[in-house]
Specification:
two-stranded antiparallel sheet; 261 residues; alpha/beta; 4-diphosphocytidyl-2C-methyl-D-erythritol synthase; Spore Coat Polysaccharide Biosynthesis Protein SpsA, Chain A; 10 strands
């Protein structure tokens, strides 16, 4: 029997004020209205509606802002939702949860600003990530630009294309812990890609600098270094890498949501 998935929804706030939250007049970014309701409601409902998801853990500094907002108060009473307090970083918070032993694998991790997350994305990701210890969702540039040529993303160039993150991660077993621990060490340098790559060894660093590695091959190589199965999931839907990070993103997301009806 397939084990139900534990979905972790990141809904914390950074030390500095978020521009979207400030503009919307709310205390934290997950409460910013997008398409008529706080952004967190969109991915939360999608996760709860998916048959493979057993529970949703909302990781945030405090549940109080969500309890105080009538539009998100339902999250605190839902039988399949629980709130957990986050720490200094994503990786450290995840490790702290795992240490307690009450968060079963497999784990799917995504973010509160993934407003366009839908069942088709979850179907593809869980299908292709199944059997892996770690998997990461990415979108290749041609996939995005074919649908939304004006959308701007941050791209990583490899031999098999230009890739942007889709903010969906898979931790299939306890063997993922060493990689999460390494993630914790380099989390402060998440905007400095070469430092992160170099942490995985000189071959990965040189291969990336010289563009001789494919992203698929690089992720698989990292997995082998840690004695686990690591996998790239190339998302079929362009919307998988469009998150509500900037005003332009929100405008595009609301247009897409309206088109979906």
């Amino acid at each position: 029997m397939t084990m139900p998935i534990t979905a972790i929804l990141l809904a914390g706030s950074r030390p500095t004020p978020d521009p979207l939250a400030v503009a919307a007049g709310v205390g934290i970014k997950p409460l910013v209205p997008v398409a008529g309701e706080p952004m967190i409601n969109h991915p939360a409902r999608t996760l709860l509606a998916h048959p493979a998801v057993g529970q949703v853990i909302i990781l945030t500094q405090s549940a109080d802002p969500f309890a105080a907002d009538p539009a998100t108060a339902w999250l605190l009473t839902h039988p399949h939702v629980r709130f957990e307090q986050s720490g200094a970083g994503i990786a450290s918070s995840l490790l702290a949860l795992l240490e307690r032993g009450d968060v079963p694998f497999p784990i799917l991790l995504t973010t509160a600003d993934h407003v366009l997350l839908d069942s088709a994305m979850l179907d593809q990701f869980t299908r292709e990530a199944a059997g892996a210890d770690i998997a990461v969702a990415m979108v290749e540039r041609r996939t995005l630009l074919a649908r939304y040529p004006g959308s701007r993303r941050t791209w990583l160039k490899f031999r098999d294309g230009w890739w942007s993150g889709a903010n969906i991660f898979w931790f299939g077993s306890d063997r993922a812990r060493p990689v999460i621990a390494l993630w914790q060490e380099v989390e402060q340098d998440r905007k400095k890609g070469w430092k992160i790559v170099s942490a995985f060894g000189p071959v990965a660093l040189i291969g990336t600098l010289l563009r001789i590695l494919t992203l698929r091959g690089g992720i698989a190589r990292i997995g082998r270094r840690f004695g686990l199965v690591a996998r790239l999931v190339a998302m079929e839907k362009a919307e998988a890498c469009i998150d509500a990070d900037k005003v332009d993103d929100v405008v595009l997301i609301e247009r897409i949501v309206a088109a979906r009806g």
